[in-house]
């Protein structure tokens, strides 16, 4: 992959710990009018659920967002004052996190303006612009927000995974209200016994106490979030009219039916339709999907992602997935845990056309769905790599000074610049197309056996699978990797990141909370320790700076194999204690000295550790008689403009739901 000259403005702006980028949508102009329309309708549906994710993340997020937007728009004082600038940054951060908790650490973000200033400016805003429900006065609104903002005991964390506490009570998310962790667990145990145990019970609902009893409020038309779901359905119904195939039409019909009924059985049926539709060029993820926001891993946040196939890159992933059985057979895991037949690993590389809900503005770089284990087992899963997103990240990061600061040698740096993009694409392909789908459980083992340690261990398993095979001759034989320098670039980067550079995204004194960060440190730290006697990974101190250097790529690969074998065994046997031990020993606690140093060196570079994207706009072109003759793709100019535009045009929920 050669770097071409590219004058597109990938990086738009930076604030706090965030950089805002935009992605290109290559190939959109070449699509048929019908496909463009399909993307347009699906992209509108993707925007209609924006309020849902705000509300799911915290009960008062919509009130907060609306109040701050009202101030932002109607403030008549000095917009260059320090306090107003602080409000602007705070609002930008809230837009980014879809709420007041940091999207990654889940800690509450505290504003930089003062309580007194805030009280004063809200009072100056005309009541008609404020989110005042029912008989609420402006003063009541101010008091509520002041305590949310400044009382450190109020909603400090969106997701609290501290095993010694009641995680349901301690987490600020809006999935539960007035119920204890024990009550939640009891409620769903009972549900699983009395109803089909395969269903993802609790996935699309809030559990709360009403008149003393524990009740479930389901997200559906006529249920919770109905006004937003109504709009989503409206656009999906238009999309059905221009579906690319019968299969896709059936799948969208099921999705609509699911939104209308809230039935989890219909949700599963939809997923089965969706996963078997591998031929359509345009595709969409739309629904309550990921459960990272719930400490019990049960309730899903709303997201949407509209995309279409990238033909060239798809070929690369296809070659890998076509050989899935070879990879499974030659994997270093115990034969008992290998699948005789690896099924339905569909590989596709896509370009994103629209991000929504949980995927916006911070987006994943790969998707592997559906999540229900039994559907994956029986029908397979769809794996996609988001090529234009990865490309934008890469373009925005070149020449940032980051590699120069943290890579040990010139050689390492050059390797990363030259091969980094292909290396990470291959890693993602292997992780998503093969890693998650590989291996099987021993008979009788429950998929939930690893409980709260499931996510980091599952990510570790997929990463280890990718790392192990990156250094394999097979990739060269298959023609997807030119030489092992590419794999070396990935090994260097993975170790550097897992042992040091990812800590630049963690606040001082904090430990690792996020599943992917836990898994990366787990792998890197474990290999560093186990390979210490052979100096597989060397810690070098030079001019007071620490570097991690890989001395033997082959030995590091052997360590990846050994750990993959163990993590697979843990999953297959449901060995909770061993899994817990691995994550607790290697994946959570941070080396305080290294952390401090990484942050100091990082801050000098003045870079933002987190990134996200604004969407392009799709604008229909109408004939005189009202028919649509084309859909124009327009790149956005400003993050703030887009956020305000979405709030004005795609906000359908009441302040409190
Ligand atoms: Zn994964």
How many angstroms separate the termini?
49 Å
Enumerate the distinct ligands: zinc ion
Q: What structural class do you assign from the helix and strand content?
A: alpha+beta
Shape: globular
Average pLDDT over all residues: 94
Give the C-alpha Rg: 24 Å
Give the helix tally: 25
Strand elements, count: 15
Strand content: 5-15%
Major sheet details: 5 strands, mixed
Which strand order do you get reading across the main beta sheet?
Answer: 6-7-8-10-9
From the structure above, extract its key features.
single chain, 657 residues, alpha+beta, 5-stranded mixed sheet, 3-stranded mixed sheet, 25 helices, globular, binds zinc ion
Walk me through this protein's architecture:
The chain has 657 residues and is an alpha+beta fold. The chain has a domain at 310-611. It is 49% helix and 14% strand. It is built from 25 helices and 15 strands. It has helices at residues 33-48, 50-57, 61-74, 82-97, 115-124, 138-150, 167-170, 181-194, 226-241, 246-261, 264-276, 311-322, 324-330, 373-379, 387-397, 402-406, 410-435, 454-470, 473-477, 485-499, 515-530, 553-573, 576-588, 592-605, 639-649, and strands at 11-15, 18-22, 176-177, 205-210, 213-218, 282-290, 301-309, 345-357, 366-369, 381-386, 537-542, 545-550, 610-614, 617-622, 628-634. A 5-stranded mixed sheet has the order 6-7-8-10-9. A 3-stranded mixed sheet has the order 1-2-13, sandwiched between helices. Strand 11 and strand 12 form a beta hairpin. The longest helix has 26 residues, at 410-435. It is globular, with a radius of gyration of 24 Å. The termini are far apart. Zinc ion binds at residues 368, 431, 436, 459, 462.
């Amino acid at each position: 992959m050669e770097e071409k000259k590219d004058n597109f403005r990938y990086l738009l702006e930076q604030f706090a710990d965030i950089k805002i980028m935009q992605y290109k949508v290559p190939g959109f102009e070449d699509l048929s009018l019908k496909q463009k329309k399909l993307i347009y309708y699906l992209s509108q549906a993707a925007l209609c659920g924006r309020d849902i994710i705000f509300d799911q993340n915290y009960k008062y997020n919509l009130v907060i967002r609306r109040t701050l937007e009202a101030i932002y728009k109607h403030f008549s004082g000095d917009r260059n004052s320090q306090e107003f600038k602080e409000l602007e940054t705070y609002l930008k951060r809230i837009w980014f996190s879809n709420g007041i908790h940091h999207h990654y650490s889940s800690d509450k973000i505290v504003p930089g303006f003062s309580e007194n200033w805030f009280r004063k400016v809200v009072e100056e805003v005309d009541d008609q612009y404020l989110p005042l429900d029912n008989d609420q006065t402006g003063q009541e609104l101010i008091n509520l927000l002041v305590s949310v903002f400044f009382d450190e005991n109020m909603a400090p964390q969106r997701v609290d995974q501290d095993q010694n506490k009641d995680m349901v009570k301690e987490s600020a998310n809006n999935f539960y209200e007035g119920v204890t962790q024990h009550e939640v667990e009891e409620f769903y145990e009972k549900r699983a016994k009395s109803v089909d145990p395969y269903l993802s019970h609790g996935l699309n609902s809030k559990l709360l106490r009403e008149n003393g009893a524990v009740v479930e409020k389901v997200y559906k038309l006529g249920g919770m979030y109905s006004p937003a779901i109504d709009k989503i359905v409206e656009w999906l119904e238009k999309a059905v009219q221009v579906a690319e195939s019968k299969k896709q039409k059936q799948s969208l019909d099921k999705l609509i039916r699911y939104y209308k009924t809230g039935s989890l059985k219909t949700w599963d049926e939809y997923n089965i339709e969706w996963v078997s539709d591998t031929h359509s060029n345009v595709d969409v993820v739309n629904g309550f999907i990921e459960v990272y926001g719930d400490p019990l891993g049960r309730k899903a946040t709303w997201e949407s992602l509209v995309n279409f196939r990238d033909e060239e890159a798809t070929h690369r992933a296809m070659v890998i997935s076509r050989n899935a059985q070879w990879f499974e057979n030659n994997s270093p895991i115990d034969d008992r845990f290998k699948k005789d037949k690896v099924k339905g690993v569909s590989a596709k590389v896509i370009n994103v056309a629209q991000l929504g809900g949980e995927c916006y503005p911070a987006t994943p770089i790969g998707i592997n769905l559906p999540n229900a284990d039994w559907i994956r087992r029986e029908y397979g899963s769809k794996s996609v790599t988001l090529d234009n997103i990865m490309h934008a990240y890469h373009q925005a990061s070149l020449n940032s000074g980051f590699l120069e600061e943290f890579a040990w040698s010139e050689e390492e740096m050059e390797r990363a610049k030259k091969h980094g993009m292909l290396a990470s694409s291959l890693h993602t392909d292997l992780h998503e197309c093969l890693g998650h789908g590989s291996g099987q459980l021993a008979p009788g083992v429950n998929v939930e056996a690893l409980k709260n340690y499931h996510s980091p261990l599952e990510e570790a398993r997929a990463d280890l699978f990718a790392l192990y095979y990156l250094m394999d001759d097979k990739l060269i034989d298959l023609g997807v990797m030119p030489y092992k320098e590419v794999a070396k670039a990935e090994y260097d980067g993975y170790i550097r990141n897992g042992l040091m550079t990812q800590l630049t995204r963690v606040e001082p004194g904090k430990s690792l909370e996020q599943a992917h960060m836990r898994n990366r440190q787990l792998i890197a730290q474990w290999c560093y320790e186990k390979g210490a006697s052979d100096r597989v990974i060397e810690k070098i101190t030079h001019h007071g700076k620490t570097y991690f250097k890989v001395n033997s790529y082959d030995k590091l690969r052997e360590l990846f194999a050994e750990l993959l074998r163990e993590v697979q065994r843990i999953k297959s046997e449901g060995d909770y204690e061993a899994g817990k031990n691995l994550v607790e020993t290697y994946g959570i606690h941070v080396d305080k000295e290294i952390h401090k140093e990484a942050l100091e060196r990082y801050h000098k570079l003045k870079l933002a550790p987190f990134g996200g994207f604004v969407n392009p706009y799709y604008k229909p072109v109408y004939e005189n008689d009202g028919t649509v003759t084309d859909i124009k793709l327009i790149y956005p100019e400003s993050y703030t403009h887009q956020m305000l535009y979405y709030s004005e045009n795609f906000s359908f929920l009441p302040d409190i739901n």
